[in-house]
Amino acid sequence: MSLKLALFDCDGTLVDSQHAIVAAMEAGFADQGLPPPAARDVRRVVGLPLVDAVARLAPTLSVTTHEAISEAYKAAFYRNRLAGTHSEPLFDGVVAALDALEAAGFLLGIATGKSRRGLDATLAHHGLAHRFVTLQTSDRVAGKPSPDMVFAALAESGADAAGTVVIGDTSFDILMARNARVRSIGVAWGYHDGAELLAAGADLLVQEYAALPDAVRGLLVRD
Question: Which GO terms describe its cellular component (predicted)?
């Protein structure tokens, strides 16, 4: 029997990190003496590798400046976490959905634009580190919409493409899944709207976590 893998995005899918991300991005731009990008624009780039996200927010700046903003962002994010001003609450229903998927025989994994340090800290804070058999981050593998994080997750978990579904809140997640030729489910509580996720190629869209386990089983479980 082949292994089945539910591969989750993190920011906007498992945790609502928008305020922490916006605050760190504002600090990153301020470090370079630049006005902050609008919060709505920052939310639009969540999920991309950090330097790519900064480049989308400020395409006329040099690569060197993009990299400097990114380093200042990471430093600000870390400071805010240590100071306790950092907040990445779980979305309602996450733990119950993970329980249900594991009970149904699914392996769980994450593919995220976060750094590995940031992901480890988030999972440790919520007591979730032990739940996931594979953790893929864009500081170690090519980021979204490249399929490489999916391929790495398949290799590490032992699942195959036919038994894998990506679960995410942005078009970058859905495009990553398409590029890897795996199924995808869009979630309506994140940072891109549902119509955009469907247009990007999501197989399904769910409105709440309670609906997710059945949606995953419906896509992947065969008689």
Answer: cytosol
* Residues taking part in catalysis: 9, 11
Residue whose entry in the numeric block shows the structure tokens 């309602």: 92
Nearest 5°: CA angle at 192, between 165 and 136? 40
Closest CA to 182 of 197, 170, 167: 167
pTM for the model stands at 0.94
Tens-binned pLDDT, residue by residue, of the chain (223 aa): 689 999 999 999 999 999 999 999 999 999 999 999 999 999 999 999 999 999 999 999 999 999 999 999 999 999 998 887 777 999 999 999 999 999 999 999 999 999 999 999 999 999 999 999 999 999 999 999 999 999 999 999 999 999 999 999 999 999 999 999 999 999 999 999 999 999 999 999 999 999 999 999 999 875 3
Choose the CATH number for 4-16+89-220 among 3.40.190.10, 3.40.50.1000, 3.40.1190.20, 1.20.120.450: 3.40.50.1000
CATH 1.10.150 fits 18-83, yes or no: yes
